[in-house]
Amino acid sequence: MVRLIGIHAPKIAKEQKFNNTGEPLAKESQTFLNKLLANNNLEIGVEFDTTRLDNRNRQLVHLYLKDGTSIQQKILESGFAVNRTMYNNLKHAKCYYQAEEKARKGGYQLWDYLAKNPDSHFPLVDSSKLTSQDTGFRIIRGKVVKVDKSSSNYIINMDTTGIRIPKKYWNRFDYSKIKQLKGQTIEVRGNAYLYKRAMYMIIKEPYAFAPFSPIGNS
Question: How far apart are CA 84 and CA 23, in angstroms?
């Protein structure tokens, strides 16, 4: 099995598993990918990055069509997925974010859905509007009210969201830039989870902060 580097495509509902209701346009996103592959006779090129396997032993790959077109870039700029950098696979991170930005500015697919269904909170939600149902992958936007550092985490707090960067990933971040985030409105993306009636997000990659790695080590 393979997993496409650099994207979060909406998840299809799995009723047999914890009543997972899925995410918007999941079937449409899968159909778009299937058509891309079918129109190219399933002939694709594969490129690996820094990390080759995820925590479920799936191969992490960049995929290309016969003419060299990036499949990830095509999906992102069409609005059927959003960018998500994981496992320190950064080879095409900026390119993928730019592809997402194209879809966002154009109001394509997921971004059009969000504009018409703001209460869906997917893929983007304001921190002040979060509910206990907004767990799982999200882009959360909010004003930073606190920046701090403990023995185990960099701490970035929005009004209702606690962002934590574990110490083992500090070498990827520039804390002097993190401190400058206080008072700014930012976006951060990853898996949101509820803990003691507050929302939290664990961040491992500078590219989790939009738009282009503003707090990473250069």
Answer: 16
